[in-house]
Fold this sequence. Notes:
Elements: H1 2-11, H2 20-46, E1 55-64, H3 68-81, H4 88-109, E2 134-142, E3 146-153, H5 161-164, H6 181-188, E4 191-197, E5 201-209, H7 214-236
Antiparallel strand pairs: 1-2, 2-3, 3-5, 4-5
Helix pairs in contact: 3-4, 4-6
Amino acid sequence: xxxxxxxxxxxxxxxxxxxxxxxxxxxxxxxxxxxxxxxxxxxxxxxxxxxxxxxxxxxxxxxxxxxxxxxxxxxxxxxxxxxxxxxxxxxxxxxxxxxxxxxxxxxxxxxxxxxxxxxxxxxxxxxxxxxxxxxxxxxxxxxxxxxxxxxxxxxxxxxxxxxxxxxxxxxxxxxxxxxxxxxxxxxxxxxxxxxxxxxxxxxxxxxxxxxxxxxxxxxxxxxxxxxxxxxxxxxxxxxxxxxxxxxxxx
Length: 250
């Protein structure tokens, strides 16, 4: 055993094919990576609970990929978001983004895929799971007045996401589609993320944080206006008084 260890150590000596500097750099790199990972975990665990956001409500739904359900999806999601006491304008923004995302899934996702056809991810046991073309939506409300909407399909997928998100780009050969779907989503939402795989479907994640409720905003306006009104009064009290309103105690 001792001889084996000695022979092994001999092969690791400098000058016989072992680069100690390279080995040291690799170890330092791994140590740094682990330290960074541990630091992020510690920061996450020590983050004050007041900063973390929590789920206050969640809705999961699925429906046939038909145009009639586009209106249904808008109504359900907007009714849920209304719990956050958002403005009519904010609700209209979300409604437009949802309409575009769901329309993409209904019109483009299952194009060329016959009803009941299995996809690449279907196994022998569930090869007819998708006898109906389906759109899946997960809506989550958070206590920081934000919403996350995930719209997913299991259709043909998007070959080039970057190009698909360019304004005026469309694969519709009929000319009925403007190619502005993703541009509209980005203009009305704070964040739009798209993941897709050819033959496996597309996932669109929409995020938006809403302004404080009307009552809180009104209170903030009143407080700021009151402070602004009091400032000139304090200055006027010292007008014509060379001592600045202070008593001469001498």
